[in-house]
Each structure stands twice: as structure tokens, then as C-alpha cells.
Design goal:
Helices cover 28% and strands 26% of the residues. The strands form two sheets. Strands 1, 2, 3, 4, 5, 6, 7, 8 and 9 form a nine-stranded mixed β-sheet that branches. With 243 residues, the chain is of the alpha+beta class. It has helices at 3-14, 27-46, 60-66, 210-224, 229-241; strands spanning 70-72, 81-82, 84-85, 90-94, 99-111, 114-123, 144-150, 153-157, 163-173, 188-190, 196-198. It is elongated, with a radius of gyration of 23 Å. It folds into two domains: 3-46 and 175-241, no CATH class; 71-173.
């Protein structure tokens, strides 16, 4: 579905087809709800608050639902992140500007005359004491390296005997804003963050998810407009059927 088609679908479902009760909703307002729904949709699959132990790869459908947002970095593609040294034991990489959720990562490092090897990353919490534990330190020989996320960076911890060169990251990127600015006054509008939008931008998610996103946007909007609870429940049941 194009952004214009998503707007049409949204209006039909919110207004119950034979009503124009909410005809005064503006294009930027509908865009806002569609993007909110898309964000909720992706988060529910990619990074649910209640962990299921499987990540988003619980089945082929969930993989397909957000596959268009998955970025794979590799040495072969020369798009891995260059490493910057902080001190003798720690390094960092800056996350891509479109980074959203971590899927997996690995570090390429060398040690002395040893050629560059692939080390598996172990993501550490901020209160972990791995740096002082002889059993949990990073190890070139065991092909394991500790990393920690902070601000817009990933910090890489070594044991001081090897040098990381690159970090290759598989991640879910932030989708482009869905918008139908072409149907607004003058064919353009400015977002709250100062971005000027023109034309239209469809959802980057696969076509099969678009109606689910619209349904979720209608549910959110119906709640915000304080529609009868029974009406909201009907839309909730419809969404549940697609899970």
C-alpha cells in the first residue's frame, strides 16, 4: 500500500465507512498515528519487553515481517564499523545514524603475528564485573570479546593482548517516516523536529504488514478519541487474529 492508500484505509476504518465523524483529522495527524503504529509493530516483533528467548526469529513470518529493516554488515561489503582506541584495553565504535535494535555482532581482531580472527561479542550490563574476573575477560584464544552499549557507541573491552580492528553489526534500522504530504495544503508540511516533507513516503515494511499497521493506528486513534470500549475491543480482536 502507498501512503495515500494507507490514509484511505485508515479513514474508512476509523469512520466506519458510512460516517464522516472524524473527517477533520489532518494529514500530519494521520501520518503521526501511522508512524506510531509502525513503531509499536516493529518493537513488538524485534524487541518485546517480555523476552521470549528467540529474538524476532520465532518463525519465518516474523522474519519476513521486518526483513526489509534488517541491515547486515560484513567485511566483504566493506561496511563494518571502524574501531577507535580509548586506552590500552578499551576501544569503541560509533553506531550508525539509522541504528535501532541490535540483532548480532562480531569483532575482527588481530594479535601479534596472528592473522585477523573473528571474535563473538558478549553484551555486558553496566553493573557486570567482567573486567576483574579471570573467567569473564575477553579472550582472543577463546574468540570472545566483551562489549557494552552507551550513548551512541559500543565500547569494546580487551585483555590488553589483542587489537580489535572492525565491528560488524547486524541491526534493525529506523524506518523512514510514513507520510502523505502531497495531500496536505500546498503539498508539504514541516514535522515537529523541523523536517520538511513533500510528496509521499510509503512504509518500508513488506506489503503484507501494511493493513495490520493501519488497524493498529486505528486502534490507537480510537482510544485517543475515547470511542466506546466495545468499538475498541472489536478492533483489538481483529488485530489479535493476525498475530
Amino acid at each position: 500500500m502507498t501512503a495515500r492508500e494507507m490514509h484511505y484505509d485508515f479513514k474508512q476504518k476509523l469512520n466506519k465507512i458510512d460516517s464522516q465523524k472524524y473527517r477533520n483529522l489532518l494529514v500530519p495527524e494521520i501520518d503521526w498515528k501511522l508512524n506510531e503504529a509502525e513503531e509499536v509493530f516493529v518493537k513488538a516483533i524485534a524487541e518485546p519487553r517480555i523476552k521470549n528467548g528467540f529474538g524476532f526469529e520465532t518463525g519465518q513470518r516474523t522474519i519476513d515481517d521486518i526483513r526489509t529493516l534488517v541491515v547486515n554488515q560484513s567485511i566483504a561489503s566493506s561496511n563494518c564499523l571502524a574501531v577507535t582506541q580509548i586506552d590500552s584495553n578499551t576501544y569503541y565504535v560509533t553506531l550508525p545514524s539509522d541504528y535501532w535494535f541490535h540483532v548480532s555482532s562480531k569483532v575482527y581482531a588481530d594479535k601479534g603475528t596472528c592473522t585477523m580472527k573473528v571474535l563473538n561479542t558478549i553484551i555486558r550490563q553496566h553493573d557486570d564485573r567482567f573486567e576483574v574476573s579471570p573467567f569473564d575477560k575477553s579472550s582472543f584464544e577463546w574468540r570472545e570479546v566483551n562489549v557494552r552499549f552507551y550513548e551512541d557507541r559500543i565500547k569494546i573491552f580487551t585483555d590488553g593482548t589483542f587489537t580489535p580492528k572492525f565491528l560488524c553489526l547486524d541491526y534493525i534500522k529506523k524506518p523512514r517516516l510514513i507520510h502523505n504530504a502531497q495531500d496536505y495544503q500546498g503539498g508539504t508540511y514541516t514535522t515537529l523536529t523541523g523536517v520538511v516533507l513533500t510528496g509521499q513516503q510509503s512504509s518500508e515494511l513488506p506489503e503484507g504488514t501494511h493493513r495490520e499497521i493501519v488497524d493498529l493506528a486505528v486502534l490507537i486513534t480510537a482510544g485517543d478519541l475515547q470511542n466506546p470500549v466495545s468499538d475498541i475491543q472489536t478492533k483489538q480482536n481483529k488485530i489479535n487474529l493476525t498475530k
